[in-house]
Amino acid sequence: MKKSLIYIIVAALLIGWGAYTIVGNKAKQEKEVAEVAKQVDKINVNVVTASRENINTDYTANGTFIPKQETNQSADISGRVVSVYVKEGSRVGAGQVLASIKRDAIEVDVTQAQNNLQNAIIDNQRYENAYKTGGVTKQQLDNSRLQLKNAQAAVRSQSVRMNDTKVRAGISGTINKKMVEPGAVVSPGTPLFEIVNINSLKLSVLVDESQVGRIQIGQQVDINVNVLPDETFTGRISFIAPKSDASLNFPVEIEVANNGKLKAGMYATALFKTNYGAENQNMLVVPAEAFVNGVSSGQIFIVQNGTAKLVKVQTGKVYGDKVQIISGLNGGEQVITSGQINLENGSKINIVK
């Protein structure tokens, strides 16, 4: 009998404990459900604090070096090449003879032109003397003078042809390519030598339209060359294109003195110093991603008492992923940077980060 009573008491305690646990769990679940219900109508967002910063506006652009001067030297007359005096890599000066063309036939023409000139001089002298005594008419004298001038012009013409048998360098520089050998028959306009002048080089880069107004001719530019990481080079802007390309980029050339290590075709990065001091200091900025439908809208959401408030701001310049705020914010506001597509003015929000 005692045993039965003990079993009954234990059973009652277990039942009571179970009931208590169930009631407690139910209360806890109800509390959690209520908390979730409170969050259901809130929209998750990310925020940043609008703050003042010193903005570095230095601008970089990549490009390749091109020779300051380069030309494809060709012959001025047709003929057979008899001699070539340079090879690839040879340094040449402007006017230096690079090759010569066979001149035998031209020498014959020169001799004939000189003989004709001598005859014209003698004939003209005879007519001059005869005219003084009335032996010839004025028209005959004029014809004699004309023949003398034609003979003189013929000699000059043949002298030019004789000079053209020598192919001369148009610029000072280095023979980059030699495209002719002795015995080759050439004609005017056929490239024979490629000459490049790399005593100084030009770094050719493209500058975005938002930055081109901040640079100027003569401005000093620091240059980093990929294959020469331990070297520092400096150049000056020598050309800014007056017209952009289809991508709204402006071709810019920077002239750089060559210390002997630079080669045409090398890849380099130009650093344009556009940070002019006070105008870029203590500037109120927010991320570009904070704007509703793009920076041009001038609209952003800020956090106010747990809700999203839509505000209109006046924007200034864009610096990469940051936008200058001229008015509409004082600084310190929590600016919403994500989730704007789901927001309306007054929407309840839940700040994730």
Automatic annotation (TrEMBL):
InterPro entries: Beta-barrel_RND_2, MdtA-like_BSH, RND_pump_MFP, YknX-like_C. Residues 75-196 form the Multidrug resistance protein MdtA-like barrel-sandwich hybrid domain. Gene3D superfamilies: 2.40.30.170, 2.40.420.20, 2.40.50.100, Helix hairpin bin (1.10.287.470). It holds the Pfam family Beta-barrel_RND_2. Residues 284-350 form the YknX-like C-terminal permuted SH3-like domain. Residues 204-273 form the CusB-like beta-barrel domain. GO terms for cellular component: efflux pump complex. GO terms for molecular function: efflux transmembrane transporter activity. Belongs to the membrane fusion protein (MFP) (TC 8.A.1) family. PANTHER family: MULTIDRUG RESISTANCE PROTEIN MDTA. This is RND transporter. It comes from Chryseobacterium koreense CCUG 49689.
